[in-house]
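We emphasize that the prediction below concerns an isolated chain of 473 residues; any contacts that depend on oligomerization or on bound cofactors are therefore not represented. The input was used exactly as deposited, without trimming of termini.
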Amino acid sequence: MGAIVFLHRWMGIAFCLLFAMWFATGIVMHFVPFPSLSEAERFAGLAPIDTARAAIGPVDAVRVSGIANVERIRLIQRSDGPTYIVSGSSLLRAVRASDGTDAPVNSPEMALAAARDHASRRGLDASRASVLQLADYDQWSVPNGFDRHRPLFRIAFDDAGGTQIYVSSVTGEVVLKTNRGERAWNFAGSVLHWIYPTILRSNWALWDRVVWTLSLLALIGAVLGAVLGVVRIRIGQGAALSPFRGWHALHHIAGVVAAAFVLTWIFSGWLSMDHGRLFSRGELTKHQVMTLLPDWAAVRSNAWPPMSPSAREVEWFALNGKFYRRDRISLDGQIMFSAGENLGDGTGSLSSLGVREFVARLATSCDVPSVLAADDAYPAQSSLPGAPVYRARCGEVWFDVDGADGRVLQRWDASRRAYRWLYGALHTLDLPILLAHPGLRSILIVSLCALGLLFSLTGIVIGWRRLRHAFGG
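Result of the prediction step, given as a token string:
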């Protein structure tokens, strides 16, 4: 018991500030998420495609791009004309649809033109916009999802809201938006909570090891404290009492009351850094990804009807060896075509039969896919608002497939399903019943984090006093 007391005492001193920071910033994060560009904002910034200037087809763009394993092709309208965006597993290339030349954004003037076009279509004032920097990383562009777009042009609008947007130097697309309020609150939220300083987070492997290790040590300290808290309970006159007085008693009582939440929250927070260590990541294996790669040379140039004149984004992809094209005409509207026999038979989304044939290439014994309910305990959301997400159960493994574009959104094996509850349900309280009542969920999250913060503050006071005593203060 003496060893537990010693470890808890000094680990508590080391981590009490970290605990308080996690609980306080958790409240902020619940109301202010990390800056991003929503799909609605991205789509609103797209212009109708000038299809008359598209002199080459998508297969030609694949050849010009030089990417070996192309998964998808998109066509968008940039300020300098229609442009194909060819994407592989880790690479992107922009190809001009007018002449088949490479189309990176390699000057501040091009990036500024893209930003102003995007802003004008969204009704934003970019008359005083200017390029602040071209950089691989800054505080808001550190997530790995931007890796294929680096370096990024950061452009300030000099408006009342302090709007800044980021333009990909690879594709010329706007990929991120922030404003002054988001940046300020996130310094008090996500940046602290995730231990996200740019110099650390830009090295993902180092950041991953540092935060995982800190979270694990914090969890061990919390477990030791819970053990001591229970052991030190004294029963007297029919009530559970603390043998301590003053701040120690408050720390003891608050710790016992908050023990279940603190332990589960710190444990699930540690699991947020799992990244495949203990649980599967919900992704297709490399072999499965390679199995699904299409042979773009097999697509005939005349296999498609004319593009819709109101299309703002056109995408080509393959499913089960069959090629599809989807014309995005609005945020929640698209027309989908399949090459070959069904030429011109446009529908908004994939059929369950097509999805079943597709997942049969990934696993055996698959049931007929069903449309996922909005309140499903294992949620997934389509990239197109209102489009179905199909779940195919193949024995113990489930696949969620986006009916709008054929992407596998999640691979649910037993490990991933367990992770969903051990992380999501415990850390963010995303239980179906609470998701149906967001106000109640917010009250619970704020109340529990406030309780954890109070408990942590008592530890800070006790730790400070012990340090002053130990060093003669």
